[in-house]
TrEMBL record:
InterPro entries: ATP-dep_Glu-Cys_Ligase-2, CP_ATPgrasp_2, UCP005522. This is Circularly permuted type 2 ATP-grasp protein. SUPFAM superfamilies: Glutathione synthetase ATP-binding domain-like. The lineage of its organism: Bacteria, Pseudomonadati, Pseudomonadota, Betaproteobacteria, Neisseriales. Pfam families: CP_ATPgrasp_2 (PF14403). It comes from Parachitinimonas caeni. Residues 78-451 form the Circularly permuted ATP-grasp type domain. Residues 462-489 are annotated as: Disordered.
């Protein structure tokens, strides 16, 4: 039997009220969980690890001298989101991604938001992710970010906040899909208690989105990977397989007569859409980094002629830069004439002298991030930092203030998690994946990442975090089976 400890009153607990009572949407699961022995759950976790390793669900950690591939730890306790919460979150995500696409189209054309003084020109035009090659280029349907991963947290007030937007090559969706498969394999009986919204159709939605990015009637789509040594290679291969399209590397493609072709044993095949998992700088050695061995020489020329679609578009990185993030609520008001449904986390821009002074004075209370940083690297969590780390960051901030933003240390919501000591709360976030094609769509859920160290707020897998299955309950309650497509046979 598992007893659920009283939650920390400083955090919003996804399963438990402050009194220790179980929230209504978790009651069926909590009863089941309390009936499980630690030994039974430990056996299931070992089984999950074995199956994940057998399938090859691993990731590489950059900078790991051993070059070893690791499993992302998988937790058996799902994160459950009631239907009403998801409806509001989904509406906010649609609104946000629509505004970000409008922003990208604008800054590469009229630049109305810059001329209106809403976003400073220098923040856009001198941004390292801004691509002058995209100026004046009109894309099919005006879509720049076809796939967006939005990192969302629930704070102590119970509200969802957007922590950051990922518009370049957002990763993690394969873990969302495999986590659901695993839960249905290990605990099929649970899905008779809950009406869990399905996620298995994501690859079909993705393929439809990629096809819509072209102007061709029956387009050929490929997934372009940097290769097997990339940390997300499993995901690249997985999505290509699930969509039924070719997984290719740059050397498999070539440009001829203003089109891109795939080399095959039956001869060249024209490629119409590329889901690229390679950063802008490495896409075309003739246009960007001349030393890149990962891209396709001449690709930009074909792209500019409209003869191939790229998802996401070149130059989308400027919209997910952390120095642009503070302006997204104003983008929503500017382009959509609507109030933002989801709030940003309060953010200090260290390039502004007054805000830098505030950050320096309150550094032990804040989280400081590099504007181009990702993966939990290059950041400071003030309350957990040593005096030496604080001194080091003060020096960095004074030397290059424009490279950093700062935010309050949020009390991320927690969710009961099966750890070595038993069931204990651990902090989590959520990355839903938003697809923009003929319409904006998403599967109900996303990748829930969990900080497995007690008290830690860093959920990134590269920093020791794990993942959970994310259950969004359908409106008809918790008595009918859900997601039958993943039921074991």
């Amino acid at each position: 039997m598992h007893a659920l400890a009283l939650p920390d009153a400083r955090h919003y607990d996804e399963m438990l009220l402050a009194s220790g009572a179980v929230r209504p949407h978790y009651q069926g699961f909590a009863g089941w969980l309390q009936a499980q022995s630690p030994e039974a759950l430990a056996r299931k976790r070992r089984e999950a690890d074995l199956l994940f390793r057998r399938v090859g669900i691993t990731f590489a950690v950059y900078g790991d001298e051993a070059g070893a591939e690791r499993l992302i730890p998988f937790d058996l306790v799902p994160r459950v989101i009631p239907a009403a919460d998801w409806q509001r979150l989904e509406a906010g995500l649609r609104q946000r991604v629509m505004a970000l696409n409008r922003f990208l189209a604008d800054i590469y054309h009229e630049q109305a938001i810059v001329r209106a003084g809403v976003v400073p020109a220098e923040q856009v035009l001198t941004n390292s992710q801004y691509q002058p090659a995209m100026r004046g280029l009109t894309l099919p349907h005006g879509i720049y970010a076809h796939i967006t991963g939005v990192d969302v947290v629930r704070a102590s007030d119970g509200e969802f906040y957007v922590l950051e937007d990922n518009l370049r090559v957002p990763s993690g969706v394969s873990y969302m899909l495999e986590n659901r498969k695993m839960m249905m394999r290990l605990f099929p009986e649970l899905f008779a208690r809950y009406a869990v919204a399905p996620v298995a159709h994501y690859p079909n939605l993705l393929l439809t989105t990629l096809r819509h990015a072209t102007t061709v009637e029956n387009p050929t789509v490929v997934v372009l990977t940097p290769g097997q040594y990339n940390s997300a290679y499993f995901e690249h291969a997985f999505l290509a397989q699930q969509m039924g399209v070719e997984l290719v590397e740059g050397q498999d493609l070539f440009v001829k007569n203003d089109y891109v072709y795939l080399r095959t044993t039956a001869g060249p095949v024209r490629v119409d859409a590329i889901y690229r998992r390679i950063d802008d700088a490495f896409l075309d050695p003739l246009a960007f980094r001349a030393d890149s061995m990962l891209g396709v020489p001449g690709l930009l020329s074909v792209y500019r002629k409209g003869h191939v679609a790229l998802a996401n578009a070149i130059g989308t990185g400027v919209a997910d830069d952390k120095s642009i993030y503070p302006y997204v609520p104003e983008m929503i008001r500017f382009y959509l004439d609507e109030a933002p449904i989801l709030a940003n986390v309060p953010t200090w821009q260290c390039r502004k002298p007054v805000e830098l002074d505030h950050v320096l004075q309150h550094l032990p209370e804040l989280v400081v991030k590099e504007v181009h940083g990702a993966g939990g690297y290059g950041m400071l969590i003030g309350p957990a930092a040593s005096q030496a780390e604080l001194a080091d960051f003060r020096a960095r901030l004074r030397a290059n203030p424009g490279n950093y933003i700062a935010q309050p240390t949020l009390s991320l919501s927690s969710c009961p998690t099966f750890v070595e000591s038993g069931i204990a709360p651990r902090h989590i976030d959520l990355r839903p994946f938003v697809l923009t094609g003929k319409e904006i769509c998403m599967v109900a859920g996303g990748l829930t990442r969990v900080a497995l160290k007690a008290g830690s707020l860093v959920v990134n897998s590269s920093q020791g975090g794990g993942t959970k299955d994310t259950w969004v309950l359908e409106e008809n309650g918790s008595s009918t089976p859900g997601d039958k497509s993943f039921l074991p046979v």
